[in-house]
Amino acid sequence: MSLTPTGRPLARNRDGFALLLALGAIVVISALVAGSFMISTRDVRTARVSASRESAQLRAENALFQLRENAQTQASALPSIGSTIRWTPTYGGGDAWITKLSDNMFLLTSDATSGGNLASNSAKSRVSMLLVRNMPQMEFLGALTVRGATQIGGSSFINGHDTNPDGWACPTPGATKPGVVTPPPGNNITYSGCNAGQCIDGNPDVLQDTRASDNATYFQYGSTGWNDLKLLAKKIPGNIGAMYVAPTTRADGTCKSDDLLNWGDPLRVGGPCEGYFPIIYVDGDAKINRLRGQGVLLVEGDLEVQGGYEFYGPVIVKGRLKTTGTGGHFTGGVMAANVDLEQNQVLGNAVISYSSCALATALRNSAALTPVRQRGWADLY
């Protein structure tokens, strides 16, 4: 052992030991900092990806539900099974399209991206919804079904032969229906100037049927009722004077479906309203003076038609039916429930023609599109 001059042992030289401790501490602290940085970076990236996924999901769902609100009009514009129409949402971004799977089933699909151009942060979502038509099961017993007394005259004509509208895509016409259906006994039809019934043609011309006095015939259509259709209808106040009904378009050339007096275009002249079949509910008496329309017409009060007005599809009147002057032309079927049992008047040169094609087409295209009960919604990715 080495001693100092005083006899004490010499201390060992420990130069560099503190440096080693400092380096070790730096390494440990660096490791902790690096680990914390990696964890923070991972959490930030995870949060960004989650936010992008959530944003893409919300945008896709938003686009889908906007299309859902417009599905009725878009579905009517699809020409054939398998055809697709792409639709751009008015707000929120995303892309959407509707595909016709069958006459009564449609698939809505939408997708959206979020997160910008960085692949690590971007996300894409796609969702879909399956819709089916909820069609009212209306049964028209003949061209004209009435519960109260009815006067038929002038040059009017009621035709029970199944008639396909000109220019419509229709199947082969079916069996001939009765011209007029009334409840028994059969003394509630009078004729004025049409040679005692020569203005009616059907099989038979006039049928007495107890169903013509049944409320369900006029107001219940399978699982759908009068009040259900009112909720889906374009509502028009009654007693507003003579209505001039005609197809109208917007400045961009699309059908102006928000116009209360635009009821579609049954003449098939190539306009944008050919596929528009609204449900129309008139809350009171309705007086129509011209021009044409299609769909499902429900009248809470009386219906008076003049000016050669043409309507294609089901017409159900809670009150009485009256045609005057040049009358009206109905292709499909008409039912007048006569709640107060007033007399119906089919006068002038009115024409009522039974048409299974007009009835089916109007009911199909105006029917509410509802999601299927099971598996109606799919989150694809």
Write the layout of secondary structure elements.
Elements: H1 17-69, H2 71-76, E1 84-87, E2 95-102, E3 105-114, E4 123-134, E5 144-146, E6 150-153, E7 157-159, E8 180-182, E9 189-192, E10 200-201, E11 206-208, H3 215-219, E12 220-221, E13 224-225, H4 226-232, E14 234-237, E15 243-245, E16 279-283, E17 286-294, E18 296-299, E19 303-305, E20 309-317, E21 321-323, E22 328-336, E23 344-346, E24 351-354, H5 356-366, E25 368-371, E26 377-379
Parallel strand pairs: 5-8, 5-22, 6-9, 6-23, 7-10, 7-24, 8-11, 14-16, 15-17, 16-18, 17-19, 17-20, 18-20, 19-21, 20-22, 21-23, 22-24
Antiparallel strand pairs: 1-2, 2-3, 3-4, 4-25, 4-26, 12-13
Structural class: alpha/beta
Distance between the termini: 80 Å
Q: Any idea what the radius of gyration is? A: 36 Å
Treating each run of at least 4 consecutive H or I residues as one helix, how many helices? 5
Number of separate strands = 26
Average pLDDT confidence is 87
